[in-house]
Design brief:
mainly alpha; two-stranded parallel ribbon; 14 helices
Length: 330
């Protein structure tokens, strides 16, 4: 067969739906979602919930799919929370071996340890999630964390901490209950001076305004995990296999494995008793596994696993030939 006929035969049967570099696939897909929203669903997406990479958002805004309608950029609270941990770990690495103004290094006992970084990251996330009614309340809560951590028995700085017997601040709570509070988790002034610019950056009004919606990308990531369990990213598949895997993942994610029985029914096939029971058993096991992950023992194991993963990511970031994604690199 001559080259021209081969080309014609390929084009006739080709199922490719994108042409260009792999880095542009996400942008093209997101733009298509916005361009077709009115035609397919009669809706306009006026909020764009994404992570730190704003390339796709910028392209959507440039494409202007809805005319004069403004599309707002929203931030995933989970990614914003991770920025605190990422920035602190990067600071700790950059100051490794340097002597601070108090004559000590940044790491070590009662210094900026991994445990202290995890606490600050978790408290930062709570400060956002518990104050979705106001940017000012968010900023106050974030700075309350800073000054609470700076406080010592000799110089308490709890003016921004919430008052009352139900306050998370044990010092302010102790003023009501009479219980004395020992500042055992405070960090030295030399370290707090180093991390203050990070708090300033992450407490900016423009950033916190994008978090008032209170949502994260966790549901999307969970769906992606279900899809990748069927069609791994590391394995090439054709368009029809891709469609089948995505359809199956979405139906399972929304309704459970029992939807496979409904699909068979729509195809004119009846699922047998054993098949139905097997699908129900898989769904029960999925719920049991999810419930188990909330138990304390499992949480501790997951935290240790995340700690190891963060350490590996940080080591990769230090290698200029092997750059990796970071929550605040964009």
């Amino acid at each position: 067969m001559c080259p021209n006929k081969l080309k014609m035969e390929h084009e006739k049967n080709c199922s490719a739906n994108y042409t260009g570099p792999s880095g542009g696939m996400e942008v093209a897909g997101v733009k298509k979602v916005f361009q077709q929203s009115e035609e397919l669903h009669n809706v306009r997406y006026v909020g764009y919930l994404g992570d730190g990479d704003s390339k796709a958002f910028n392209e959507v805004v440039k494409d202007n799919p809805y005319g004069d309608v403004v599309i707002s950029k929203l931030e995933c609270i989970g990614h914003i929370q991770k920025r605190m941990g990422s920035r602190l770990r990067r600071l700790k690495t950059s100051l490794k071996g340097k002597i601070l103004c108090d004559g000590k290094s940044i790491s070590g006992k009662n210094r900026l340890t991994d445990g202290a970084i995890d606490r600050l990251q978790n408290y930062f996330g709570l400060a956002i999630r518990q104050n979705l009614d106001s940017v000012e309340n968010m900023r106050r809560a974030i700075w309350a964390i800073y000054f609470h951590t700076l406080s010592t028995n000799e110089t308490p700085n709890h003016g921004l901490c919430p008052a009352g017997a139900d306050s998370w601040c044990k010092y302010r709570k102790g003023l009501i209950t009479g219980e004395k509070y020992n500042h055992s988790n405070s960090l030295p002034t030399a370290i707090m001076d180093e991390i203050k610019p990070i708090f300033k950056d992450l407490a900016q009004q423009d950033l916190l305004k994008k978090c008032l919606h209170g949502r994260t990308q966790n549901p999307n990531e969970s769906l992606h995990n279900v899809i990748w369990s069927r069609i791994p990213k590391t394995v090439f598949v054709g368009i029809y296999t891709l469609h089948f895997g995505v359809f199956d993942a979405i139906s399972t994610f929304n309704e459970g494995n029992v939807t496979k029985c409904l699909v068979l029914q729509l195809l004119g096939l009846s699922a047998g008793h054993n098949t139905v029971e097997a699908m129900k058993r898989l769904d029960r096991e999925r719920l049991r596994s999810a419930d188990c992950k909330f138990k304390n023992i499992t949480k501790e194991a997951m935290q240790q696993k995340r700690g190891v993963k963060r350490k590996l990511l940080l080591e990769n970031e230090e290698d200029p030939d092997n750059p990796s994604y970071g929550d605040d690199l964009f």
